[in-house]
Amino acid sequence: MQCNYCEWRCELNKEKYGVCQMYYAENGIIKERFPNRWSTCNISKIESLPFYHAWPGSRSMVIGTAGCNFSCRYCSNSFIAREDPQKQQAGMFEFTPEELVNMARKQGCHNIVFNVNEPTVSLPSLIEVSKYAQKMGIPMGCLTNAYMTEDSVEIIASIFSFINVSLKGMSPKFYRNYIGIKSGDPILRNIRRLATTNHIEVTVPVIQTVNDNELDEMADFLAAIDRDIPFHVFRLLPEYQMKQYEYPSITVINDTLKKVREKLNYVYFHNFVGSDWVNTICPHCGTEVITRLSLGCGGDRLLEFSCLNNKCQECGQEIRIHGEKINWRSLEVS
Amino acid sequence: MSIAVIDAREWQRTFDLKTGASVATNDPTVGMVKEILARHPFPGDVEIAANNWVTDTTLDLIEKYDPQLACVTYSMPYFIFRFNEITAEEKATVIASVFREIHRLVQSSGFTPVIIGSGSLVPLKGYIDLSRLDGLAVASNWSTSYAGIHNPSTRDLEYIDNLPQVEKTVTKEDLLKLFAGSKEEGFRLPDYFVMAKEGYTYKAVGTTLRKPVRIPGHNYFIPVATDLGEVDSITQIRGLVEKNLPQKKIAVIIIEGVGLEDFPLPYKRCVNSVGWYFYETGELQFFAINMGKHNFLSYPQGYRYHEDDDEKQPYPFSGYFRDIPNDTIGAQMGLKRIAVGSRSMLTHATTGADICIECFARNLSNQGLMAVIIK
């Protein structure tokens, strides 16, 4: 039976689990191998995930499962995403959707964000979580590679109100050599689709001399959809199978971003500690409206929010923000 | 103003350590430190070259700053033993590498060493699942033996009591009594505090995604090697060093992940505990060594560390540390002090030395380096 969750469209049966190793087929139904098993349910700042334009200052409960449908040579979470999901089960949390959402409440979290691996590999569980989260008034977001079918993208759009899509490249050659898929066309299609109904931010992990020459093309693609889509350019750390590569030059990559900044209103360059390019600048008058500090991988934090009612206080320009500024402690449970 | 110098490889920036605000400075000490950082890129937490990095960087800083005291931490053994499946032969190679580098440091600098093994690791036997309580269980990323329980129900306490992998459960009041603290000092303490049996760790909020293969053992004693004199407890090291500091240049060297059975030099068995509580390698043990007293109540394991972590939290480069201690080894003696370590955050946050250089790594991701110049 053919899986319809992601664009691999793997042939599944009781013993064939597909590229992601997370589904099987039985009695004409595609089922999850490990429903309601979570690799993490930790607290994080929303800026560090990163979402720079959704619920600023909020406390997110980060969840993830195991497995992935990509084979990125530079995967920073390979110890989860690239390991056999079966072998990871002993260390997994087992929470029903209700328990997971209640855990977010107990930890004083304002939202739940699926991070770590790819949500498409755990969609049935996430559908159930979203039903309860919606009932409890907790918004959900995710990070995704968006390599999913048109049916799945509708599900993703209904579960997650804010989404960060990792656009890893543009050329088929790049996707073949570094990600292990034939083409990024479904990803572009899904970004267009998600941008019509959901808050999206887009992240590109940059490998110097490999995909930095595609940044302009990415910016053109995004600008044609919406110039206000926040664009995160990540300095990729040499990890996993690319561990021996040089660290990308911050100066060189920043130079290549000059044209990108003319095309898009919110361009950030980070994933390294102390970045100069993590603040939000009003696209109309140039005033700094949100100040952040980059602590590198998974550590960005809000320092100052000067964007009352999501508008620049100097010129009144509306700043693209999904939700509103949240006080970190507002849901603390004593 | 204390300064943080960030080096993300071929790219450096300076910040106010306390606020995180970017600052421009022509301070010659900052310039000197920037040059040292540029000369010594960090190889990575689990790379054997990290041991060479500690020695090379320390020697460079000693040459430029001429300190009387150097606090030096070699953490690579801990990280590789914790996360990698390694053979006995590989383990021996790692330990030999560290001691070779310590020998080089001592020979080249002429400093008198106090060498401390922070305790050995044992194979992970299994997990204690505290994730499904009515209350909230908190275990921090790097503490494996202890967890805090907040607002437990009667059902939770019965469940924990019946867990065969739990060594001990005590109340907040028991902890206050153990560490001789006042009620006010204990406001961060969890309602209950759980200690696991050796080899077991927790599934609870805050536990790391990266699963360990070994975790710190119940090291009630750790090895300390020095010619300076006798110490019985880790809190006595400060006094011994300060007694000798005016006459000697001293290096206090901590090797993380090495305990009594693997320590290759003659050593004194040193108490690494308070009653039933033993120190795991990490900030509380480092505080006890550097401050000469127990500092458990400031950062108790199992506390809800995330609650402090809003935009107003000072020292954003220092993780969950809320200040830099000023009553540390040698601090009252008016001597020049440095700290160098392959341990992020703890190097500066537990020594308070004039100049600290450490790797900037999070969860084994190598971001580069940070130096802290404390004023």
Characterization of this structure:
The complex is a heterodimer of chains A (334) and B (375). Chain A has 334 residues and is α/β, with parallel strands linked by helices. Chain A has helices spanning 78-81, 97-106, 123-136, 150-159, 172-179, 185-197, 215-225, 250-256, 258-263; strands spanning 23-26, 29-32, 37-38, 40-45, 59-64, 93-94, 111-114, 140-144, 162-166, 199-206, 231-235, 267-270, 280-281, 288-293, 301-305. Helices cover 25% and strands 20% of the residues of chain A. In chain A, α3 (123-136) links the parallel β7 and β8 (140-144). Chain B folds into two domains: 37-122 and 215-368, no CATH class; 123-214, Gyrase A, domain 2. Chain B is built from nine helices and 20 strands. Chain B has a ten-stranded mixed sheet, sandwiched between helices. In chain B, β7 and β8 (146-150) form a beta hairpin. The longest helix of chain B is centred in the first third of the chain and has 22 residues, at 88-109. Chain B starts with a strand and ends with a strand. The A-B interface holds A 39-43, 45, 57, 59, 64, 76-77, 79-80, 88, 90-91, 93-95, 99, 103, 106-108, 116, 237, 239, 247, 249-251, 272-274, 276, 293, 295-299, 301-305, 327-329, 332-333 and B 6, 8-11, 13, 15, 20-22, 126-127, 131-132, 136, 151, 203, 205-206, 209-211, 306-307, 309-311, 316-317, 360, 362-363, 365-368, 370.
Indicate the low-confidence ranges of chain B by residue numbers: none
Order of helices and strands of chain A: EEEEEHEHEHEHEHHEHEHHEEEE
Number of strands of chain A: 15
Task: Tally the structural domains of chain B.
Answer: 2
pLDDT average of chain B, as an integer?
Answer: 96
Number of helices of chain A: 9
Which quaternary structure do these chains form? heterodimer
Sheet with most strands: strand arrangement of chain B:
2-1-20-19-18-3-14-4-13-15
Share in β-strands of chain A: 15-25%
Output the structural class of chain B.
alpha/beta
Report the principal-axis shape of chain B: globular
Q: Name the beta content range of chain B.
A: 25-35%
- Helical content of chain B, roughly? 25-40%
Second-tier CATH architecture of chain A: Alpha-Beta Barrel
Rg over CA atoms of chain A: 19 Å
Count structural domains of chain A.
Answer: 1
Put simply, the count of helices of chain B is: 9
What is the number of strand segments of chain B?
20
SSE string of chain B, helices as H and strands as E: EEHHEHHEEEEEHEHEEEEHEEEEHEHEE
**End-to-end distance of chain A, in Å?**
50 Å
CATH topology of chain A: TIM Barrel
